[in-house]
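Q: For a teaching session next week I want to show students how multiple molecules come together into a single three-dimensional assembly. I've collected the sequence lines for a complex. Could you give me the predicted structure tokens for the whole thing so I can convert them for display?
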Amino acid sequence: MIDASRKPPLIPESMSQRPAILFANDAFYTAFATGDLAAMDAVWARRAPVCCIHPGWTALNDRDAIMESWRGILGAPGGAGRQNQGPGGGRRQTAAIRCVRPEVFLLGDVAWVACYEILPNGNLIATNIFVPEDGAWRMVHHHAGPAPPVDAGDEADTPRVQ
Amino acid sequence: MIDASRKPPLIPESMSQRPAILFANDAFYTAFATGDLAAMDAVWARRAPVCCIHPGWTALNDRDAIMESWRGILGAPGGAGRQNQGPGGGRRQTAAIRCVRPEVFLLGDVAWVACYEILPNGNLIATNIFVPEDGAWRMVHHHAGPAPPVDAGDEADTPRVQ
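A: Of course. Below is the structure for the complete assembly, covering every listed component.
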């Protein structure tokens, strides 16, 4: 169903992109941890279609709705942060979220990161997808859900690249 | 950090790829629903790095480990299917899973689908990423986690494309 003459996928990319992808992923968690809505807005793509799946929520596919969700999460009284509204999952507290064990995947103009989010009351695991836009990697997809306990030691912050 | 002279992202792709992407996504859920391990094996990419995040599990980043997990899930006695091992999330029953409301995203050689998984005892929401390999779209990433109730009527099966 796909022209087999297309270039083979997963041609090795410049390693130089991987730090930039991790930088974008870190920017997301820094915006989250600091409750910085403007920084969160800058993280997300402006032209590419976007999708955000907070733990236990339905998917948000509209950029304005996504930013409104972050406004509520980051601005919650007492920094309560993202509240799981679904049948399971965790609760995120602003200023207490930490990303560990990011795994970076890269193919052409799309990168994705699987990582754990360490929270005071448990862990989540996230899939974050990025595309280049205006000279930087911008988030187009975020999906977080429950995860079991993981080793969140300092060594665990070392990214693995695929 | 990225060469701004690169071609703009999200150049409109051939619409003809979208049915092929949905076909690949459907093949995953058909393999799941029918408990067909060989079909599930065929769904997943063989050369690209892969990652599978079952509900409440840690991430599996090794193809053999992923297939072993599916062997256990699809072959569970009584078709019990995927068991959530984490702090939340749902339980999946083989032969009772149904994908609804798939949303397709496509950029170059990478496609991703956000969709709901309808189960007898609740819903999950999934992020599925595909890349072309050997002439077809193959799954490289699956992440499922809890979701609230959604409209799973017949009309909801109509895919939306971004």
